[in-house]
């Protein structure tokens, strides 16, 4: 379905009683749930980076990451409006539900993108601003407009967009990129496929209906579950890289090992279990896992400071 036909469909379905937009609809365009995780990992990158940044500038950097995340999400909703209207999980989003015009969502996304990158460049540093701009562009042009509808590897490659925040936070303090910030990037990059494919397993029908070639749709459930296990296995040693480099210590290392093994347990259960509950539980745990893992990074640095 073309974007024009989708807009006409949305307009017709809401012609009798057009919902009135309010501020909550525009907030929904920014995907606040996703933003929470983005902001958290970005803040962790900033907090554990060597060096210092003025607290106010640190808050500005985190705010820019949040605004950029919302900007990319708004453009994503604008572009995906033709398929969102047909998917149970997304049909009540502001655009397909007729509460926000598509052109307003696009304008909001573009405006917030420009503001976030400009403020980051002026107030913080150029390196962080460049990474922020790349993360927006990657999510919008590489994932949303190119990969999502063209390959089952969409979330593997496109997942890089969501892995930028801790690297951006790190660059806000250090003014650059190094092995440790790349390790933070790789943790989220490797976490994304098992996390998202767990969701795709119990939303497979929605993706098939609109022709989005998610891995379960194209390769089948069995192949998807095997790949989820592989990525979860590869993730575990990557989470221990910050310990090997000396950035983080024993507390983080133990936490990463234990939570990683439990994540692996979920992947094994998904592989062996045909019921929908297994991937559903893995998806829920994957979110908790990333919060705990990155929280342990901050706790480890704090503990090191207390002991020292």
From TrEMBL:
Pfam families the record matches: UbiA
The entry's keywords: Cell membrane, Heme biosynthesis, Membrane, Transferase, Transmembrane, Transmembrane helix
Keyword hit for Ubl conjugation: no
GO molecular function: protoheme IX farnesyltransferase activity
Cross-referenced InterPro entries: Protohaem_IX_farnesylTrfase, UbiA_prenyltransferase, UbiA_prenylTrfase_CS, UbiA_sf
Reactions the enzyme catalyzes: heme b + (2E,6E)-farnesyl diphosphate + H2O = Fe(II)-heme o + diphosphate
Domain of life assignment: Bacteria
Pathway(s) of this molecule: Porphyrin-containing compound metabolism; heme O biosynthesis; heme O from protoheme: step 1/1
EC number, UniProt record: 2.5.1.141
Record-annotated membrane-spanning stretches: 26-49, 56-79, 110-143, 155-173, 179-202, 233-263, 283-303
Localisation per UniProt entry: Cell membrane
GO biological process, one term: heme O biosynthetic process
Membrane topology field: Multi-pass membrane protein
Functional description taken from the UniProt entry: Converts heme B (protoheme IX) to heme O by substitution of the vinyl group on carbon 2 of heme B porphyrin ring with a hydroxyethyl farnesyl side group.
Note: Carbon 2 of the heme B porphyrin ring is defined according to the Fischer nomenclature.
NCBIfam families tied to this protein: cyoE_ctaB, PRK04375.1-2
UniProt family annotation: Belongs to the UbiA prenyltransferase family. Protoheme IX farnesyltransferase subfamily.
Record's protein name: Protoheme IX farnesyltransferase
Gene that encodes it: ctaB
């Amino acid at each position: 379905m073309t974007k024009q036909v989708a807009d006409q469909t949305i307009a017709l379905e809401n012609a009798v009683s057009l919902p009135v937009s309010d501020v909550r609809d525009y907030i929904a365009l920014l995907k606040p749930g996703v933003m929470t995780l983005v902001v958290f990992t970005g803040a962790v990158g900033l907090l554990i980076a060597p060096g210092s940044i003025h607290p106010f500038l640190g808050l500005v950097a985190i705010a820019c990451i949040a605004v950029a995340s919302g900007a990319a999400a708004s453009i994503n909703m604008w572009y995906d409006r033709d398929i969102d209207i047909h998917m149970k999980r997304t049909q009540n989003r502001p655009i397909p539900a007729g509460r926000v015009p598509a052109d307003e969502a696009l304008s909001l996304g573009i405006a917030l993108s420009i503001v976030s990158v400009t403020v980051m460049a002026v107030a913080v540093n150029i390196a962080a601003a460049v990474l922020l701009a790349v993360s927006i562009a990657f999510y919008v042009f590489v994932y949303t407009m190119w990969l999502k509808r063209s390959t089952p590897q969409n979330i593997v490659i496109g997942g890089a967009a969501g892995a930028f925040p801790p690297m951006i936070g790190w660059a806000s303090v250090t003014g650059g990129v190094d092995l440790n910030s790349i390790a933070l990037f790789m943790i989220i990059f490797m976490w994304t496929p098992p996390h998202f494919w767990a969701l795709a397993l119990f939303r497979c029908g929605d993706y098939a209906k609109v022709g989005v070639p998610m891995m379960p749709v194209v390769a089948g459930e069995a192949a998807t579950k095997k790949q989820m296990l592989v990525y979860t296995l590869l993730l575990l040693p990557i989470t221990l890289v910050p310990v090997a480099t000396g950035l983080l210590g024993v507390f983080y290392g133990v936490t990463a090992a234990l939570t990683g093994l439990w994540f692996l347990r979920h992947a094994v259960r998904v592989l062996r279990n045909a019921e929908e509950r297994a991937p559903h539980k893995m998806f829920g745990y994957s979110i908790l896992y990333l919060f705990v893992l990155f929280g342990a990074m901050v706790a480890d640095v704090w503990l090191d400071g207390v002991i020292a």
